[in-house]
């Protein structure tokens, strides 16, 4: 019998770090019948004062070639009753172990000062990460803060590894000014990024649920300057927006006061734009004199955009649509998913939906035999339209399966 992919997750809510580590190691190892090649650990910020003890405790009980992880605003994992839980405001530890035959697993840690110039050759990025671009690696990325910006890092990785999928989340600490933790093979880091590249018999598929619904119609940017929209369909943007808001229902008009966003169409040729075709960005401000609108990304003339609203209902509908679309696109000869990771914004969860475990339960309803682990992030990493971005208010799922002919 061929060696099969295995993926196990365990979640502990023990308030003692020693007890939590013991519980997740014992349970995740008991679910595997072969040696783990990769470990991913996520710890809630309720354990902030004990971050330095995580790796020593894990390394005492666990031997795995590559082990990465980080701190989060909460963690996601599977309880001993087999239920997926999102724990946002209490001590919790989530450990995923994976047995990945036919996959080369390469971990890394990089800091801002090491990042190559974006104008330089792709080889300098390949040298930095230490992973060849062929066979195409799949990346799981856990950055802290970057002085040069995480978007520069993602742009560089897209440049060097254009066919690679990159998912992940930005580590966060336990409140204002508290320090993050990044873990890699026994070490604790306070800055930079840890990650893992998976090359060989593995496919990493993504669902990037940005939680918005479009309003009105798409417009074309006819004049702009960097991140400032000066004209939409050759009209003053603020007038276009005011007319649009005036046409909305009273409920949506109220929502637009605090939950209005811009969706940038990522495919300039696609006519029938669907959820997943837009990169959602915040509106930073307006200039009432010029009627211009500033957004949280660069735009170019000719690009299409559509205004969006975000609320719990839009967020739920968006994720459900993307899960249904994911299953519809599967073919019978593809191996089933064997594991998944969830990177959710701290602005989602119970604060958005008014009840716990919403996104993870919806995921499990559609992919019901797929073990899931993850954490609540300060920013979520995932692809839209073939490029990788840092998102907000998003849930990104990385779904692993073997290759069809693997």
Automatic annotation (TrEMBL):
<keyword id="KW-0472">Membrane</keyword>
<keyword id="KW-1003">Cell membrane</keyword>
<dbReference type="InterPro" id="IPR013702">
    <property type="entry name" value="FIST_domain_N"/>
</dbReference>
<protein>
    <submittedName>
        <fullName>FIST C-terminal domain-containing protein</fullName>
    </submittedName>
</protein>
<dbReference type="GO" id="GO:0005886">
    <property type="term" value="C:plasma membrane"/>
</dbReference>
<feature type="domain" description="FIST C-domain">
    <location>
        <begin position="237"/>
        <end position="384"/>
    </location>
</feature>
<keyword id="KW-0812">Transmembrane</keyword>
<dbReference type="InterPro" id="IPR016741">
    <property type="entry name" value="UCP018953"/>
</dbReference>
<feature type="domain" description="FIST">
    <location>
        <begin position="35"/>
        <end position="236"/>
    </location>
</feature>
<dbReference type="Pfam" id="PF10442">
    <property type="entry name" value="FIST_C"/>
</dbReference>
<dbReference type="InterPro" id="IPR019494">
    <property type="entry name" value="FIST_C"/>
</dbReference>
<dbReference type="Pfam" id="PF08495">
    <property type="entry name" value="FIST"/>
</dbReference>
<keyword id="KW-1133">Transmembrane helix</keyword>
């Amino acid at each position: 019998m061929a060696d099969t992919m295995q993926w196990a997750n365990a979640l502990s809510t023990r308030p003692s770090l020693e007890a939590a580590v013991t519980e997740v190691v014992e349970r995740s190892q008991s679910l595997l019948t072969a040696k783990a090649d990769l470990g991913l650990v996520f710890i809630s910020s309720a354990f902030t004062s004990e971050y330095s003890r995580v790796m020593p405790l894990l390394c005492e009980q666990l031997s795995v070639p590559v082990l990465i992880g980080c701190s989060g605003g909460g963690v996601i994992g599977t309880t001993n009753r087999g239920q997926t839980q999102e724990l946002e405001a209490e001590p919790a530890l989530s450990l995923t172990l994976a047995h990945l035959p036919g996959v080369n697993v390469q971990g890394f840690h990089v800091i801002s000062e090491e990042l190559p110039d974006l104008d330089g050759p792709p080889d300098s990025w390949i040298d930095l990460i230490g992973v060849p671009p062929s066979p195409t690696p799949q990346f799981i990325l856990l950055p802290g803060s970057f002085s040069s910006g995480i978007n520069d890092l993602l742009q560089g990785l897209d440049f060097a590894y254009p066919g690679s999928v990159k998912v992940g989340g930005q580590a966060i600490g336990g409140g204002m000014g508290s320090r993050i933790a990044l873990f890699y093979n026994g070490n604790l880091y306070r800055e930079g990024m840890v990650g893992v590249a998976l090359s060989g018999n593995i496919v990493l598929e993504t669902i990037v649920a940005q939680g918005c619904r479009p309003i009105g119609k798409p417009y074309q940017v006819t004049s702009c300057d960097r991140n400032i929209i000066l004209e939409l369909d050759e009209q003053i943007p603020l007038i276009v927006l005011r007319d649009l808001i005036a046409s909305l229902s009273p409920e949506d008009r109220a929502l637009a006061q605090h939950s209005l966003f811009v969706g940038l169409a990522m495919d300039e040729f696609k006519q029938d734009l669907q959820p997943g075709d837009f990169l959602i960005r915040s509106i930073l401000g307006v200039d009432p004199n010029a009627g211009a609108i500033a957004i949280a990304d660069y735009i170019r003339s000719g690009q299409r955009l559509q205004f969006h609203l975000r609320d719990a209902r839009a967020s739920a509908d968006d994720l459900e649509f993307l899960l249904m679309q994911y299953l519809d696109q599967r073919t019978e000869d593809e191996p089933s998913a064997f594991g998944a990771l969830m990177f959710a914004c701290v602005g989602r969860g119970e604060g958005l939906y008014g009840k716990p475990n919403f996104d993870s339960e919806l995921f499990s309803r559609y992919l019901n035999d797929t073990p899931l682990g993850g954490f609540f992030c300060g920013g979520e990493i995932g692809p839209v339209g073939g490029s990788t971005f840092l998102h907000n208010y998003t849930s990104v799922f990385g779904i692993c399966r073997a290759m069809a002919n693997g």
